Task: inverse folding
């Protein structure tokens, strides 16, 4: 079975804003190495990232990215924010893959309007 890891971003990366502005669907996945629910949902996220061409999921470790965590008001993990060309489309918390899937479905629907 192949593994498709998500690209990890760091708030020191100069290109985070550029990535958000230039991608059709971008998910910021806030996680932590000690988070059990984050580990549970990770394989499903890797699969979605591989299977949906228009989608790019980036992970950000909350313990390594204090400023961006504060700016995005992250209070628990896993936490997801979705953007399209820099526009915030929605967010959700928790490891319920159905809820995450619904967030993506709603985002795709909003692009078709």
Result:
């Amino acid at each position: 079975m192949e593994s498709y890891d998500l690209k990890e971003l760091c708030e020191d990366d100069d290109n985070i804003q550029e990535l958000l502005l230039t991608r059709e669907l971008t998910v910021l996945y806030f996680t932590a190495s000690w988070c059990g629910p984050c580990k549970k949902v990770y394989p499903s996220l890797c699969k979605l990232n591989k299977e949906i061409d228009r989608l790019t999921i980036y992970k950000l470790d909350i313990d390594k990215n204090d400023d961006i965590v504060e700016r995005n008001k992250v209070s628990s993990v896993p936490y997801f924010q979705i953007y399209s060309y820099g526009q915030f489309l929605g967010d959700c918390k928790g490891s319920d893959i159905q809820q995450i899937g619904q967030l993506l479905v709603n985002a795709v629907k909003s692009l078709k309007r």
